[in-house]
Structure prediction request, 181 residues.
Amino acid sequence: MALAEIEFEGLHKAIAKLGPELFRDPLRRAFDRSSQAVGAAMLPGIPAYTGHLRGSLQIELDQRGLLVDWARIGPRAKHTHFVEVGVRRHNPGFGRDARLAEWVAAKIAPPIVRSKRPRKGGRSDAEAALFQATFLIARSMARKGIKPRPFIRNAMRASKGTVVAAFAQMAREVEGAWLAS
Prediction:
């Protein structure tokens, strides 16, 4: 699954020297600030066809120990990876039993053109419209694939300065607490 991850490498060495009490609150604030910044930068870039991808955006902080070690930010929808990196050319199949036809019926609901004469194969007008729309989408996927929309990568680039500033602020807070003690 495509997610943005923030991890502070080399932190355990500093914690071992100075003690975890100095790091607990500043580290949590730094992870909170940086993950919120990445999430805020990600939200406008998420394609919102149905809103499912945008609605599944979650921010997860490490809750296992005394200190926060990492944060994961990103949509939890199954198709996140395909939207982020795209899909190469392939033939998804478009028959009546294919999943693509179900998706087209649910998401696009093609307009029904009323026919004055009976259709071949005993299809109704609605079935014919669905078949035609599914065929066109399948043909496009077979010829071109699906173009990537790298909203996670773009969000990480856009919020890099904020993330660095949050951890620099954390370092200043730890330094100040260490000098005060």
In short: Strands lie at 4-7, 57-61, 70-75. The chain has eight helices and three strands. The CA atoms of residues 174 and 180 lie 10 Å apart. The radius of gyration is 24 Å.
